[in-house]
Amino acid sequence: MKKGSWIVAYDRNKGYSQADSLVKQLMQCCKTLQSLVEDPVWFELDREEDFGQFQKMLGDYVDNYGEPLIAVIVLRSQRFYPNYKNICYSYNVVSQVVNMRTIQKQSLSVASNILR
């Protein structure tokens, strides 16, 4: 994946370390698979429950750069899952919502599932 062709969104108050850990896992998995992946575009959200902020950021991104290959959203609460999925769907963007607890397991299987 080329630089800027994928997005990682996270709550800046609670989720940076988990989002960063997930990106490192994805990079490691791609290296193992001999696949090239570059840094994502980071969407730093003020609060994970602020869907309007995410929708505006994604809309601006799509308007300026086109559809990303995937948007990976790191959440602490799964109750917001449908909101983020619906926003991505409305922009025709493939998405994967990942719970912070899942990332903390440090499993490359999580990363490989996202890459599929």
Written overview of the protein:
By secondary structure, the chain is an alpha/beta fold. The protein has one domain (6-115): Rossmann fold (3-Layer(aba) Sandwich), CATH 3.40.50.2300. It has helices spanning 16-32, 51-65, 81-90, 100-103, 108-115; strands at 6-11, 41-45, 70-75, 95-99. The chain has a four-stranded parallel beta sheet with strand order 2-1-3-4, with helices on both faces. Strand 3, helix 3 and strand 4 (95-99) form a beta-alpha-beta unit. The longest helix has 17 residues, at 16-32. It is globular.
Annotated CATH topology: Rossmann fold
Q: Give the helix/strand class.
A: alpha/beta
Name the strands of the widest sheet in spatial order.
2-1-3-4
| Number of spatially distinct domains | 1
Rounded mean pLDDT score = 82
Task: Please outline the major beta sheet.
Answer: 4 strands, parallel
State the order of secondary-structure elements, H for helix, E for strand.
EHEHEHEHH
Q: Which residues sit in consecutive blocks of at least 5 with pLDDT less than 50?
A: none
Shape: globular
* Computed Rg: 13 Å
Fraction in beta strands = 15-25%
- Specify the CATH class: Alpha Beta
Helix percent reads 40-55%
Q: How many distinct beta strands?
A: 4
CATH architecture: 3-Layer(aba) Sandwich
The separation of the N and C termini measures 13 Å
CATH level-four homologous superfamily name: Response regulator
> Counting H and I runs of at least 4 residues, what is the number of helices?
5
